[in-house]
């Protein structure tokens, strides 16, 4: 999405431009102009969204908005202090579609773009983002996250991001034999400078076509991802990739809780025995009742299936009150070989039961509409 930014304040132009780039949108230096230069920039075309800063020259901003409407039919969003309701109304009456609070400009810009996209006002190509989560450790979330990402890549579902943001010990670098130069932990040290270019430089490409964001390569403690950072990372994923698969680990970390409202789907991974199902049932209740996650966004996936003594699929669905999207077979030899060799499941046993189930999940995900 191409953004044009107009403001009389050079400082505001720089701050807002950094926000725009930070969520994966395009805004070159020549797209940042003062009010006098706005008509000329709009006349050149190639505009999807216009942002008008109100920090300085509010009285000049209102005629600038009105004149911008003569040169472009693209939506105009005003950005400024939101403390004076009468002034906000005045700006909206002048022709701005929405007014964004400059103290929360990143969050409000993300929400506004989503509303414009859903209303069909802008044609911002946005990918899907899904997260895999379990109620307890040892359920196989990391293995299934990687397996689903590679299945999407094999399904030719466009660019795929696999991101390790979970609560468990970082494993992607080890499991996939990757040597990333940069990691999520490094990004977090200077997150306010992260944009599309910086994120892509941090990712490590896998030969099967997946871009991987590793948490880090040493130690046992995962980096803590703040809620605001997680939201920005999800926005970057939507704007840069066709599919983002996020390993959220087990339990409800700050990053996991923040992601719940912004994911297209949450895949809850469970084993098929009573204790695991009881914990998964508790997690479902917490997600739907305390965090208001719509039940239709939850997808239940059984892992390590077909073991002796496990409950049947019908019994599992009766306990959880949900239908299982699928049951991934237990193929320990395949999983162990893949991990020992640092390879994806699809490289070791592409026709195995595990990969067939993951391929079915990927096909469904690739063909279903985004939330």
N-to-C order of helices and strands:
EHEHEHEHEHEHEHHHEEHEHEHEHEHHH
Sheet/helix structural class? alpha/beta
Biggest pleated-sheet summary: 8 strands, mixed
CATH architecture of the largest domain: 3-Layer(aba) Sandwich
**For the residues shown, what is the average pLDDT?**
94
Helical residues, percent: 40-55%
Radius of gyration: 23 Å
Number of discrete helical segments:
16
- State the CATH class of the largest domain: Alpha Beta
Number of strands: 13
CATH topology annotation of the largest domain = Rossmann fold
CATH superfamily of the largest domain: P-loop containing nucleotide triphosphate hydrolases
Shape assignment:
elongated
Counting structural domains, the number is 2
Q: What percentage of the residues does DSSP assign to strands (E)? A: 15-25%
| Low-confidence sequence ranges | none
Strand order of the largest sheet: 8-9-7-10-6-11-12-13
Spatial gap, N to C terminus? 19 Å
């Amino acid at each position: 999405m191409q953004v044009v930014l107009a403001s009389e304040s050079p400082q505001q132009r720089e701050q807002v431009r950094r926000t725009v780039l930070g969520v994966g949108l395009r805004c070159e230096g020549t797209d940042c102009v003062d009010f006098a230069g706005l008509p000329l920039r709009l006349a050149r075309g190639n505009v999807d969204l216009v942002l008008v800063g109100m920090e300085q020259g509010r009285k000049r901003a209102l005629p600038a908005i009105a004149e911008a409407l003569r040169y472009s039919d693209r939506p105009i969003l005003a950005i400024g202090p939101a403390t004076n309701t009468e002034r906000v109304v005045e700006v909206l009456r002048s022709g701005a579609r929405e007014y964004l609070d400059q103290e929360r400009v990143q969050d409000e810009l993300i929400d506004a773009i989503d509303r414009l996209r859903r209303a069909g006002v802008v044609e911002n190509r946005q990918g899907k983002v899904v997260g895999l989560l379990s109620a307890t450790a040892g359920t196989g979330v990391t293995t299934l996250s990687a397996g689903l990402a590679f299945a999407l890549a094999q399904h030719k579902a466009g660019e795929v991001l696999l991101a390790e943001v979970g609560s468990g010990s970082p494993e992607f670098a080890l499991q996939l034999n990757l040597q990333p130069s940069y990691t999520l932990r490094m990004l977090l040290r200077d997150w306010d400078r992260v944009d599309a270019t910086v994120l892509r430089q941090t990712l490590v490409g896998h030969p099967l076509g997946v871009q991987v964001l590793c948490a880090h390569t040493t130690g046992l403690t995962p980096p803590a991802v703040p809620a605001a950072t997680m939201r920005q990372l999800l926005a970057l994923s939507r704007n840069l990739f066709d599919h983002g698969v996020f390993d959220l680990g087990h339990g409800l970390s700050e990053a996991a809780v923040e992601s719940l409202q912004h994911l297209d789907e949450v895949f809850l991974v469970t084993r098929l025995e009573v204790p695991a199902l009881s914990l998964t049932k508790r997690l479902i209740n917490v997600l739907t009742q305390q965090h208001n996650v719509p039940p239709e966004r939850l997808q239940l996936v059984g892992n390590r299936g077909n073991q002796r003594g496990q409950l049947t699929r019908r019994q599992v669905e009766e306990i959880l009150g949900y239908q299982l999207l699928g049951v991934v077979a237990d193929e320990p030899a395949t999983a162990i070989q893949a991990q020992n060799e640092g390879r994806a499941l699809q490289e070791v046993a592409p026709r195995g039961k595990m990969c067939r189930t993951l391929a079915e999940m990927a096909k469904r995900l690739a063909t279903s509409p985004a939330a």
